[in-house]
Amino acid sequence: MTTPPLPLAGIKMLELGHTVMGPSCSLVFADLGADVIKVEPLEGERTRQTVGFGAGMFPTYNRNKRSIALDLKSDAGKTILRKLVTQADVLMENFGYGTLDRLGFGYDELSKLNPRIVYCSLKGFLAGPYEQRPALDEVVQYMGGLAYMTGPRGQPLRAGASVVDIMGGMFGVIGILAALRERDVTGRGQKVQSALFESTTYMMAQHMAGQVVTGEEPPPMPHKSSSWAIYETFTTADDRMIFIAITSDNHWRGFCKEFKLDHLLIDPELLTNPQRVKARGRIAPLVKDLVAQHTFADLGATLERLKIPYAPLAKPADLFDDPHLNHGNRMVETLFPNGKRAKLPALPLEIGDHNIGLRLQPPRKGEHSRELLREAGFDAAQIEAWIAGGVVIAAEKS
């Protein structure tokens, strides 16, 4: 059986990216079939050596890409990149403000080489008073209200993953796809920009609107006023934590009947959800005591049967063997630089019969330099001279 081409097959993207925002954007294109060429500096993309919190960044965001390592400050390196630009559909970059312009690779220059190029810049800020500031995921979480909304009062807390980097990258994907669609009509590319700060404030819009509606400043999540009486974490008889959300009248009726709390169903002060929210101080202790009498497995099975939302408190390590994540092709076995292999989540999409999985392992630095230069039209002697001269790094075959 012939496998149909992936949806973005035929699109060629140059990624001049690093860390999370840029690579997570181009990863979507790579997983969906685009030919993503990762243009790295001679020392390699910085997350190849990142430790601590960021130790897993490179293998996570760089599968299905080909790598070429160039000295972009040299005349020869600039010649190579310009040639690659003439053959590309998209260039995506997330370097600091003005970096590529100073190197001669801004949109105005490259659009003259290739008027069809879609040029995506992922930055800390869109145009305005802040646009030249450096930014990080954590910086904009503080600036944009997310850290305040996440931690307890007086203890701002960044989210436990690079949520803004990834969201900014995803908005980049949306902008690029829109520009490619418009290019189908006009024949010309254009510049697209996405930014961390504006992505954060986009998430804050619901809290801003809530303040307008209620007239009150929204409290941080640990102090929030819940919209439902039961929407919190409890501890089971086997000392496991479980989150339970009783968010509808049907949930409430089913829960009370199942656990012999019928007297609560006829209580005139608990007939509607707003009433139950007001009476939360009376209801929550009853549920807490009830949950403490059941094991997680038994309670989870009951809640699933009742179709009441619930969840265990999982750690990242629990996800490797999650039966749902391991269904179909939702986990891809990834080769790590240290030689280990482990399953990581694939792109969280289903598109028809396509297998959105692994085609290429995260590349070694310069792993595809020679083949990419050949494909660009350079002759073998020139390629080997550039490699010998240190303009290009080409990984040796393993």
General description of the model:
With 398 residues, the protein is of the alpha/beta class. It has two domains: 258 residues, Rossmann fold, CATH 3.40.50.10540; 91 residues, formyl-coa transferase, domain 3 (2-Layer Sandwich), CATH 3.30.1540.10. The protein contains 16 helices and twelve strands. A seven-stranded mixed β-sheet has the order 6-5-4-1-2-3-12, with helices on both faces. Strand 7 and strand 8 form a beta hairpin. Helix 8 crosses helix 9. It is elongated, with a radius of gyration of 26 Å.
Alpha-carbon distance between the two ends: 32 Å
What is the third-level CATH name, the topology of the largest domain? Rossmann fold
CATH class of the largest domain: Alpha Beta
Regions with pLDDT < 50 over 5+ consecutive residues?
Answer: none
Form type: elongated
Element order: H for helix, E for strand: EHEHEHEHHEHHHEHEEHHHHHEEEHHE
Strand order of the largest sheet: 6-5-4-1-2-3-12
Can you count the helices?
A: 16
Q: How confident overall, as mean pLDDT?
A: 96
Estimate percent helicity.
Answer: 25-40%
Write the layout of secondary structure elements.
Elements: E1 12-16, H1 21-31, E2 35-40, H2 57-61, E3 65-70, H3 75-86, E4 90-93, H4 99-103, H5 107-113, E5 118-123, H6 137-143, H7 146-150, H8 163-186, E6 191-195, H9 196-214, E7 230-235, E8 241-246, H10 249-258, H11 262-265, H12 273-278, H13 280-291, H14 296-306, E9 310-312, E10 331-335, E11 341-345, H15 369-376, H16 380-388, E12 392-393
Helix pairs in contact: 1-8, 8-9
